[in-house]
Amino acid sequence: MTLEVGLLKKESLLNRVLASLMHLFSLLLTFILPILVYMVTKGRNDYFANHAKEGMNLHFTFFPILLVLTFVSKKINMVSILSFSLIILETILIVIATIYTLKGKKFSYPVIRYFKV
């Protein structure tokens, strides 16, 4: 059940918790979970579809960079520090998105926009 507040919809606590869990569990399942959530919810629930797009934008930006850094770090050990730092940054962004989503606030990852929200 949603309430109209000005131009913004106030999502139910259940929807906010589920969207927050999607962000949080994407730490383990990377881009797979947002893709699954998007495929199931597109056309049915814009709230979940938009959060899934945000998750896909994050992971499709970070994943290729981490992949390249992983291959390069086998040749240059100092690159592994950069790779680890990027993983920490991604984790921090996901935790922030989880908190914002739980509070019902809008959060956009500062990444490349592959999917428009």
From TrEMBL:
Entry-linked Pfam families: MamF_MmsF (PF09685)
Topology class, membrane: Multi-pass membrane protein
Compartment list: Membrane
Transmembrane segment boundaries: 20-40, 56-73, 79-102
Superkingdom classification of source: Bacteria
Keywords on record: Membrane, Transmembrane, Transmembrane helix
Name of protein: DUF4870 domain-containing protein
Species of provenance: Lysinibacillus pakistanensis
